[in-house]
Design a protein that fits this description.
The structure holds two protein chains of two kinds.
Chain A lengths: L2 H10 L1 H21 L3 H10 L3 H12 L4 H11 L2 H10 L7 H9 L3 H9 L8 H25 L13 H12 L4 H20 L4 H20 L39
Chain B lengths: L1 H15 L6 H7 L1 H16 L10 H17 L2 H18 L1
Helix pairs in contact in B: 4-5
Classes of the chains: A mainly alpha, B mainly alpha.
């Protein structure tokens, strides 16, 4: 595996690390309160590595719910990874199942969003994605174990910590606005997510919003003349290729996440 | 739990990476990240922690400068820190 790629991926993971450490700590603290040992917390963050479902699982554990409903809940909460995995799969059409197994096991909302923010970096470069995801997961495990170990010493609601991960998500969201169509899909998705979340329990709203907004995005693409990239975003020129090989996309690049242009 | 989480992550990558995907579908899939991210961000700003509906002023007011900052300056690190500082500051005022 390319060492250079790995380091580039690890560097791109730093903002995720900034979010995962405090959230991981919050998780660790709550998990201890629910009765897990520090070792169990570390093991969960290693094997499961899925924030939302981990939080919900420990809540269910603390209420004494048996393992089967917890597993079912986990499955449905993490179902959105199905869509993310599908998107990422486009960029790895030449790799072994073993590589894909390893890469896909570490998929999270945040690493997905960073990976998609500059797809030229991940196209058939498992090293980069691996560096990105390993660094993120180590931060998550470290945060969880740290939180479990140190318990109530730090005020995890202070220092702006609760806004670290939301900030990150907002950045990654803005990066995805490549055309005016994307902007309207953003608004549409945002509003529908509020409606779905209000109407439906749990995390169904995420996957439903994704389906709805993606479907409408596809309709917009078909019916309207494609608009040029919005001028305020730097973008490399896009060429469409017929099918196989690296799908070329308009990408916008960031200073913070590595400024590679294609 | 680990297995239930792993399956939806692995299966699409295993299957779909072997197929050729038509161009129109690829374009459609391009909207997936923005939809998911939007679906994650908006509820943070408009729902409280117990899951009930309600505008979150501290989150919402912190989100707007971050949005503008990323739009203009495009620095991932900087925007995260900016957001945290604003949120922290607003915590003292609100």
């Amino acid at each position: 595996m390319d060492n250079h790629q790995f380091k580039a991926g690890a560097k791109a993971a730093l903002p995720i690390v900034l979010g995962y450490l405090p959230v991981g700590m919050a998780f660790g603290i709550l998990a201890r309160k629910a009765g897990l040992t520090t070792f169990e917390v570390g093991l969960m963050s290693l094997l499961v590595y899925a924030g939302a479902s981990q939080f919900i699982a420990i809540e269910m554990i603390s209420k004494g719910i048996s393992w089967f409903p917890i597993v079912i809940a986990t499955f449905f909460i993490n179902l959105r990874h199905l869509l993310m995995s599908s998107t990422l799969s486009l960029y790895f059409n030449r790799h072994s199942l073993r590589t894909l197994g390893l890469l896909s096991a570490q998929l999270t909302d945040e690493s997905f969003a960073v990976a998609m923010s500059d797809t030229s970096k991940i196209s058939n470069r498992p090293g980069y994605l691996f560096g990105l995801q390993v660094t993120s997961q180590v931060a998550w495990i470290a945060g969880s174990v740290g939180g479990a170990f140190f318990g109530g010493l730090i005020n995890h609601k202070g220092y702006g910590l609760p806004f670290a991960l939301p900030s990150l998500f907002i950045c990654l969201l803005v990066i995805q606005i490549k055309t005016i169509h994307h902007f309207w899909v953003l608004i549409l998705a945002g509003v529908s997510s509020l409606i779905f979340k209000w109407a439906l329990p749990g995390n169904w709203y995420i996957i439903l919003t994704a389906f709805l907004a993606t479907g409408i995005g596809m309709v917009i693409e078909k019916k309207l003349i494609p608009s040029p990239s919005m001028p305020v975003l730097r973008s490399s020129s896009a060429t469409e290729d017929g099918g196989e090989g690296e799908p070329a996309r308009r990408t916008s690049s960031l200073e913070g996440g590595g400024g590679g242009e294609k | 739990m680990a297995f239930a989480t792993f399956l939806p992550r692995f299966i699409p990558m295993a299957l779909l990476s072997r197929l050729v995907i038509p161009e129109r579908v690829k374009k459609g899939l391009d909207y997936i990240p923005i939809s998911i991210l939007s679906a994650i961000v908006f509820p943070i700003l408009f729902f409280n922690e117990e899951g009930g509906a309600g505008i979150q002023p501290q989150y919402l007011l912190s989100a707007i400068p971050v949005f503008i900052f990323v739009w203009k300056v495009k620095s991932l690190w900087g925007s995260v820190i900016l957001g945290m500082l604003i949120y922290w500051g607003l915590g003292s005022i609100l």
